[in-house]
Design brief:
elongated; alpha+beta; seven-stranded antiparallel beta sheet; 520 residues; six-stranded antiparallel beta sheet
């Protein structure tokens, strides 16, 4: 077991990771406001989308300053740091890595200084033509105008975002805005970009609109953010979603928009299930209301003879409320969550690790003892967490444990910004529902159907990406050897030969996604 590095780990038990969130992006153009603090609170509201690193870039009209580090938003920034970031324009980013390792040089915003103006960029999502973009960067003419920064001996970034930043920064004979309109149609995959030069805030969303991006209005400016919850926290009024295939620019002349691709909406269905905050609005639906409706549908389709409905906090709470409401079974709090354990500073010792889920959740024995329970959770990935949870509930005196899941079985990996397990590790890929039920030790198990989940969102099925549930990927994927979180690290290590898919999966953490489509 690797020693703790004093920073952040993926999970309490790194061998039992749930679905890891996408990133959170935020941008603000507001002369006269403390834009660094607005960006801080914006990404603070988006902390659930990424806990590995955080960063803010600010422009005062003459230069861009970037401050970023590993850790949570509240760990990276303090009052003195934010006070030193003066300007009228800022972007912020909270990262969970889906391409590129979780290291300082991959933290965002990325930054590119050139003689004709600098650029800083933040990205939510995951690109599928990273290899093509890397070749485009390699083919760029050497830029004699690029500024040489000696402030720190930086390693080369190995994420897809840095490639886009390099390609955007090279625009010697055109404006940055025109360069973006030319480049964005060549970028494939899921992306919400926010970027800036010294005077203008930009934002763009991929033609499928896989990840959410919204536009808000301040009294003296504009805001873009991954979720409406970030607008709320900075006092911005919601205007609308950024359209798929749309680019927005905000400067002293106001807001302007242009379309760089036809919209073909395929919003991520898993945002409704787990990723987004419950107080966020997606497709004009409050996520909390959708999750409550999912619980109602679960209760009608898969009733249970039980005494109490309890959620697995926090993501299971709205659906548990809906299940209790529709079933008439009382709702109760049977599990207490330690709110500060989402990410830990130090790897737990083996003794602590054996306690497993108790680091996050502890049962209320006086509530559950002798009761037949319905336990509502958002998803089952590997099954280890549910297995430990059910064992813990039985030890606390539960007579029966009936598990209800507010998403269909997750059978396929995501290549658009969620870091699931590889397909071989997904429990639903190899076992039936009855077999999973026996594996986790439940008295019964039921998942909401895909049709009912889609119905609960009120979004047309054709406008949703459901790939992790049905394997139908709406954005074309490259060959398996050109997929994977660590694609660019591997290319840097072995640039002169084809990638060894099995070697990649075995030797690099997170690289197993490369063979996810081929494995049984």
């Amino acid at each position: 077991m690797a020693r703790g590095d004093g920073l952040l780990t993926n999970e309490i038990d790194p061998n039992d990771r749930g679905p890891q969130d996408a990133c959170g992006v935020f941008g603000v153009w507001a002369p006269g406001e403390e834009v660094a603090k607005l960006a801080y609170y914006g990404i603070y509201a988006l902390q659930h989308r990424g806990q590995e690193s955080a960063g803010i870039a600010v422009s005062n009209g003459r230069q861009i300053l970037v401050y970023k580090d590993m850790g949570l938003v509240s760990q990276v920034f303090d009052e003195s740091t934010l006070s030193s970031l003066k300007g009228h324009l800022a972007i912020g980013h909270a990262r969970y890595s889906t391409t590129g390792a979780s290291t300082w040089h991959n933290a965002q915003p990325t930054f590119r200084p050139t003689a004709h103006g600098s650029i800083a960029l933040g990205h939510n999502g995951n690109l599928t033509n990273t290899s093509d973009l890397a070749k485009m960067v390699a083919d760029l003419p050497s830029d004699d105008g690029e500024l040489d920064i000696h402030a720190r001996n930086l390693e080369t970034s190995t994420n897809d975002t840095s490639l886009v930043t390099a390609l955007l920064a090279h625009h010697p004979d055109q404006s940055l805005e025109d360069r973006a309109a030319e480049l964005l149609p060549q970028v494939k995959g899921a992306y919400c970009f926010v970027w800036m030069d010294e005077g203008t805030l930009y934002a763009a969303r991929d033609p499928q609109g896989v990840r959410p991006l919204v536009l808000g209005r301040l009294e003296r400016g504009w805001v873009v953010a991954s979720e409406t919850a970030a607008l709320d926290i900075v006092g911005a009024s919601y205007v609308r979603e950024v359209e798929p295939g749309e680019m927005i620019a905000v400067d002293e002349d106001g807001l302007r928009t242009r379309r760089f691709a036809e919209a073909d909406p395929k919003g991520c269905l898993f945002e409704f299930v787990y990723l987004a905050r419950p107080d966020t609005r997606i497709s004009n639906q409050r996520v909390h209301s959708v999750r409550v409706e999912i619980g109602r549908k679960l209760a009608r389709s898969y009733p249970a003879d039980a005494d109490l409905v309890i959620p697995v906090p926090e993501s299971g709470t709205p659906s548990a409320i809906g299940f209790a409401e529709a079933s008439g079974i009382p709702y109760g709090v049977g599990l207490v969550k330690n709110s500060y354990v989402g990410r830990t500073f130090i790897q737990p010792s083996q003794t602590i690790r054996q306690l497993g889920i108790r680091l996050k959740l502890n049962p209320l024995r006086d509530v559950i003892e002798g009761k037949r329970l319905v336990v509502v959770d958002d998803s089952i990935v590997r099954g280890n967490t549910q297995r430990a949870l059910i064992r813990m509930l039985r030890e606390a005196g539960a007579r029966e444990v009936h598990v209800r899941i507010s998403s269909p079985p997750v059978k396929w990996p995501c290549f658009y910004g969620i870091d699931f397990a590889t397909r071989a590790e997904l429990i639903a890929n190899g076992l039936s529902t009855d077999e999973i039920c026996a594996s986790i030790g439940a008295d019964s198990l039921a998942y909401i159907s895909l049709d009912e989940l889609v119905e609960a969102t009120t979004v047309p099925s054709k406008s949703l990406c459901r790939a992790c549930f049905d394997g139908n990927y709406p954005i074309e994927l490259p060959e398996p050897e050109l997929l994977g979180k660590n694609l660019l690290e591997v290319a840097a290590v072995i640039p002169d030969r084809a990638l060894d898919v099995d070697g990649l999966a075995a030797s690099l953490a997170g690289g197993g996604a490369t063979d996810a489509l081929d494995r049984p």
